[in-house]
Design goal:
This protein is an alpha+beta fold. The protein has four domains: about 5-180, Immunoglobulin-like; about 190-310, no CATH class; about 330-540, Rossmann fold (3-Layer(aba) Sandwich); about 545-635, no CATH class. Helix 6 (about 350-360) packs antiparallel against helix 7 (about 400-415), helix 6 (about 350-360) packs parallel to helix 12 and helix 12 (about 525-540) crosses helix 13 (about 600-620). The longest helix has 19 residues, at about 600-620.
């Protein structure tokens, strides 16, 4: 017999978190034991500074202690062993907690209360309950995964793949213990640098966003083994990577053996992390057999993963929870409803593109209004202009995108809104400075904002962008609106069933150029339509952000803004530059303006917009809303 006191007196409880706790008599022949293996790919000590272990039997806590992992005295992976006391059929519950801070008082406090995720600095938790199996030494994997960070679960559940799942696992599901299942110092460990090399692994191509179905890609000239293997690495919104197992619960699966280069994220991981924007990148390589749940990462590679990365300056930086919120913007969509636009009405037409864009979370801070053209000849001189305000039910009044979306969808989805012919548009009547530009100019931001990031007019049609009123042309009006009111004008030229119209192409291009943008010509490539809306979204919802508590208490020159570039598959950092101002936006970097808004300037802004557009476009091209593009704040890590 060994009791808890004699166990701790023997000094085993601090031996690298590896111990054999015997709570009762041992069998004379084959031992009946349970060995839990604790592992993580999360950053140590930036994310995890200590781990707590709690053992319960029949609802009673029989062991709890905390182990510091931030000073190197305890390393993950480690093991914790238990021998059966009495009836092996009595289940044992093991809980491992990952703390963001050291917890010197945990051993005393946990007898009274086991904190949940979000309490007492608990970042992540894993909990399992199982009986022993007589005459076997069972291995119970207890990985702490980033997918379960900040996800609390009930006392009778455990987080698996980002969702709360059943706590119990049967002994039949567990393997017999071998050290090679835990420690990456054998020939069977998984070599990350060999199977997922940074220089040879490509961003996976999204095939079906609803199922999180991807396809591995090869570099130009790169050969794929026959038969191919498959390994997947995801990057989370704090820019930390994780190598996934081929596992239906919290990794990835290959749904069709006939398409071995295609894989799906586990359903739980897809719903809880990817679709919510917590996974910002998916990378794959088909050079090696898939990593299995019982295959530890090789020691050197795991050490590199746990060490994380710095911000490129040599100063370690830690990513704050939360993201910057874009400053409010405004967009007025002016769409032709002539008979030749029939293809772009209904659920399968332009509404599919616009509707998905309005679901993009980054668009939630944009006010959207909607109005149809054509205008009439009388509108060229009408006072006031019928386009100077948005008047429901004919129009959709300005509202935030998430609220305006359904009303706009109903407008574009109703075939009854189409005209029976293709009349003269009189676009210049609608675009008078006291017309749609006045509707935009009169719009005031919602409190507490005092100014908009951007205002823009978005023209959508497939013909007749020429002047007809006899006064200023639409291109001149777009130029005046930009110069006088800072309102940009975008133009999307769609395919005309009657054939190409060179005059419309020339006029539309001129309007966009004078309005401070470039024409989106979708006459020969329908994908340009999706690209157009995503570009507008990224332009309106980036480079200027609301005042944030994330940027407080730290000198600005120590703060880094970061985002994930999906095309280059790497983190991009933006340094502080006090020369970045509203009057000097060509300076690279970020700064806080006089209204305490966060502004990104120069090529830093241009690159961010391109990255945001690529992020949203990947989802739009497969008919899925973007999970959202985030700009994060990093500060020097606490000691």
């Amino acid at each position: 017999m060994r009791n808890r006191a004699s166990l701790r007196a023997a000094g085993w409880a601090v031996a690298g978190l590896a111990l054999m706790a015997a709570f009762g008599s041992c069998t004379a022949d084959k031992p009946t034991q349970l060995i839990a293996g604790f592992s993580t790919q999360m950053q140590v000590p930036r994310e995890l500074r200590s781990v707590g272990v709690v053992i319960q039997s029949s609802g009673r806590t029989i062991f709890c202690d905390n182990y510091i992992v931030s000073d190197g005295s305890v390393r993950l992976p480690s093991t914790f062993g238990l021998e059966a006391a009495g009836d092996p059929a009595n289940p044992i519950t093991i809980t491992v907690l990952g703390f963001k801070t050291d917890q010197p008082d945990f051993a005393g406090n946990c007898v009274v209360k086991i904190p949940d995720v979000g309490q007492d600095s608990v970042l992540v938790m894993r909990r399992r309950r199982t009986p022993y199996s007589s005459g076997r030494i069972l291995y119970l994997p207890m990985p702490l995964r980033r997918s379960c960070a900040d996800q609390p679960c009930g006392t009778d559940q455990s987080c698996i793949g980002g969702v709360c799942s059943k706590l119990d696992i049967s002994p039949e599901q567990l393997a017999d213990f071998r050290e090679s299942l835990v420690f990456g110092n054998t020939s069977t460990c998984f070599p990350v640098l060999e199977c997922l090399p940074a220089a040879g692994s490509m961003p996976a191509k999204l095939i079906d966003g609803d199922k999180c179905l991807f396809e591995a890609q090869a570099l130009p000239g790169q050969s794929i083994p026959d038969p191919p293997g498959m390994n997947v690495r995801v990057t989370y919104d704090n820019f930390t990577p994780e190598v996934l197992d081929r596992d239906a619960d919290e990794g990835f699966v290959i749904p069709d053996p006939g398409k071995p280069l295609q894989f799906e994220l586990a359903s739980s991981l897809c719903q809880s992390n990817y679709k919510k924007g917590k996974i910002v990148g998916v990378q794959a390589n088909a050079a090696c057999p898939s990593k299995t749940p019982l295959q530890p990462i090789c020691d050197g590679d795991l050490k590199s993963l746990q060490a994380g990365q710095d911000n490129g300056t040599g100063q370690e930086a830690c990513v704050k929870q939360g993201a910057l919120q874009p400053t409010e913007s405004a967009l007025l969509v002016l769409m032709d409803r002539s008979a030749s636009m029939k293809k772009f009405f209904g659920d399968t037409g332009f509404n599919g593109v616009l509707g998905l864009s309005l679901q993009d979370p980054v668009f939630n801070r944009c006010r959207v209004g909607f109005k149809f053209v054509p205008a009439a000849l009388a509108d060229c001189t009408a006072a006031p202009s019928p386009f100077a305000a948005l008047t429901p039910p004919g129009d959709v009044a300005f509202d935030f995108a998430s609220q305006a979306r359904d009303a706009i969808a109903a407008k574009v989805g109703a075939a009854s809104n189409l005209l029976a012919s293709d009349p003269v548009l009189y676009l210049d009547a609608a675009m008078r400075l006291d017309g749609v530009y006045k509707a935009l100019g009169d719009l005031a931001p919602t409190a507490p904002s005092t100014r908009f990031n951007r205002k823009a007019l978005f023209l959508v049609g497939n013909r007749d962008f020429e002047p007809h009123c006899g006064g200023s042309s639409p291109a001149t009006l777009a130029q005046q609106a930009l110069a006088q009111s800072g309102i940009y004008t975008y133009v999307l030229l769609l395919q005309n069933p009657n054939g190409a119209d060179p005059a419309a192409l020339s006029a539309a291009s001129s309007i966009a150029m004078q309005g401070g943008t470039s024409l989106f010509d979708a006459t020969s490539d329908a994908n340009v339509g999706a690209k157009a809306v995503q570009t507008v979204v990224s332009d309106l919802s980036s480079c200027l952000y609301d005042k944030s508590d994330l940027i407080t208490g730290t000198p600005e020159d120590k703060i880094t803004l970061s985002y994930f570039d999906l095309q280059g598959y790497h983190r991009v950092d933006i340094s502080h530059n006090e020369l970045c101002t509203e009057q000097s936006t060509s300076q690279n970097g970020w700064n806080v303006d006089s209204q305490q808004r966060v502004r990104i300037c120069g090529s830093s802004c241009t690159a961010l917009r391109e990255a945001a557009k690529a992020f949203a476009l990947q989802a739009a091209l497969v008919g899925q809303p973007s999970p959202g593009f985030q700009v994060k704040v990093s500060t020097p890590c606490s000691p």
